[in-house]
Write a structure and sequence with these properties.
50% of the residues lie in helices and 12% in strands. With 239 residues, it is α/β, with parallel strands linked by helices. The termini are far apart. Its main location: cytoplasm. Belongs to the class IV-like SAM-binding methyltransferase superfamily. RNA methyltransferase TrmH family.
């Protein structure tokens, strides 16, 4: 397993200091892959100051204009959320998250995504995540600074990594599609099923998306489904 295959993605950070503090939190736990999506303020002196020696993460971090591009090359995308109501089937806590991320990192790239300081991730962004991470804070006061949240998750990743170093395992490694490939499949499904009259409103595709994401399709399985869609397209075109 490799911590280098796990990247922390920060969405539209409002304060540059949070970027620096997050970088410091990551480096203390051995993480090095930091990504930013449309930060409101660029990396500046405050970010560098609060990074406290983790400036190499700031220098090497990648910046993207949107969520999809930031996670496009990842086979597992985990989004943090304080919203619990509609995410029960895909929701877990930091320790479970760390164990899964480390197992998958043997062969795959992992993204753990943190939302905006005030409103978190949008529903559309949450929909593009395979799993959703919730930090079980005090129900009477659950306000966590984004850098604190990054520190908690980074710590659990470090502990999971240490455990696996002491007790190495060699589980069978599945090949999973990237987020970008999965989005192409969803677009293909939406287009064909709409043409066939099966999809008449957005809720149908939403349910299909959740079904396929829960199934965690491997690459070979996804290719089979894409082949089926293409065969149906060819058949209907001949009629």
């Amino acid at each position: 397993m490799s911590l280098n295959n796990i990247k922390i993605v920060l969405i539209e950070t409002s304060h540059s200091g949070n970027i620096g503090s997050a970088a410091r939190a990551m480096k203390t736990m051995g993480l090095s892959q930091l990504c930013l999506v449309s930060p409101k303020k660029p990396i500046d002196e405050q970010a560098i100051s609060l990074a406290a020696g983790a400036t190499d993460l700031l220098e090497n971090c990648q910046t993207f204009s949107n969520f999809n591009d930031a996670v496009a090359n990842c086979q597992l995308v985990i989004g943090t959320s304080a919203r619990l109501r509609h995410l029960q089937n895909t929701l877990f806590e930091p320790r479970e998250c760390a164990e899964l991320a480390l197992q998958r990192s043997l062969k795959n790239k992992i993204a753990i995504v943190f939302g905006r300081e005030r409103i978190g991730l949008t529903n559309s962004e949450l929909l593009r995540c395979h799993y959703h991470l919730n930090i079980p804070t005090n129900p009477d006061y659950g306000s966590l600074n984004i850098a604190m949240a990054v520190q908690l998750v980074s710590y659990e990743l470090r502990m999971a990594w240490r455990t696996m170093q002491k007790n190495p395992q060699n589980p069978p490694l599945a090949d999973y599609p990237t987020a970008e490939v999965l989005e192409h499949f969803f677009a293909h499904t939406d287009r064909l099923y709409t043409q066939l009259g099966f999809i008449r409103n957005d809720s149908v595709m939403l349910k299909l998306r959740r079904l396929y994401q829960r199934a965690e399709l491997e690459t070979a399985e996804l290719n089979l489904l894409r082949g089926m869609l293409t065969a149906v397209e060819k058949y209907t075109a001949q009629k």
